[in-house]
Amino acid sequence: MPIVKYPRATEPLWHEWDGKAQKCGLRHTVYAVNGDQYTGEWLDNLKHGKGTQVWKRTGAIYSGDWKFGKRDGYGSYSIPDPVTKEYKKVYTGWWKNDRKCGYGATFYHGGERYEGEWSGGLRSGWGRMYYRDGSIYEGQWLADQPGGQGMLRLPNENRYEGGWKDGKKHGPGKFFYLDKGQLFEGIWAADIPKCGILIDFGRDEAPAPTQYPIPKV
């Protein structure tokens, strides 16, 4: 009885090419169509694990953790200086779903910086902000602005301690005029003191006390 031999089935070449094109595990630099490049780990064709992304249009660099194609975990984000072309760190800290989330530090133009908590890419929770004029705010934040309880210390050491809303003094608070040796304690609304009392506070040690002390009632 004659033996019939059937030709061995061969898979199309595109199956082999497609298999090789699947990205999983550690890979060398992979270039996107728009010129962006990524070097690091993959899972099911998504950036996942440790990796570094470079955006061609802005020159920005992110190096850190990824989860299913998005920045998630701990990482740092830097941009090149427009003049010197040297990279300057913009943010170092925690990310979630491609946004700043958790504790991190951001460095702003002009030397300002924020150290504290983030949520959804906005300053939210507890944090400390160093302003360009030398002022320092330390306290609670909400939706990227001081909100809740906090203290603002001015360059001359005068300070406000109390409530904040939408980035302005709001609610019960105390303003220490340490340069004059006075204390104002009262209620604030949208940065304006509405009512309260003003008393002498450390007047003898103040560098520029008022000419006359406040009489006691």
From TrEMBL:
Signal peptide (UniProt feature, chain positions): none
Protein name per the record: MORN repeat-containing protein 3
CC annotations in GO: acrosomal vesicle
Compartments it resides in: Cytoplasmic vesicle, Secretory vesicle, Acrosome
Any Pfam family hit: MORN
Keyword Mitochondrion tagged: no
Main function: Assembles a suppression complex (suppresome) by tethering SIRT1 and MDM2 to regulate composite modifications of p53/TP53. Confers both deacetylation-mediated functional inactivation, by SIRT1, and ubiquitination-dependent degradation, by MDM2, of p53/TP53, promoting a proliferative and cell survival behaviors. May play a role in the regulation of spermatogenesis.
SUPFAM superfamilies: Histone H3 K4-specific methyltransferase SET7/9 N-terminal domain
Subcellular location, principal: cytoplasm
Gene expressing this chain: Morn3
Organism taxonomic ancestry: Eukaryota, Metazoa, Chordata, Craniata, Vertebrata
Highest taxon of source: Eukaryota
Transmembrane segments: none
Protein keywords: Cytoplasmic vesicle, Repeat
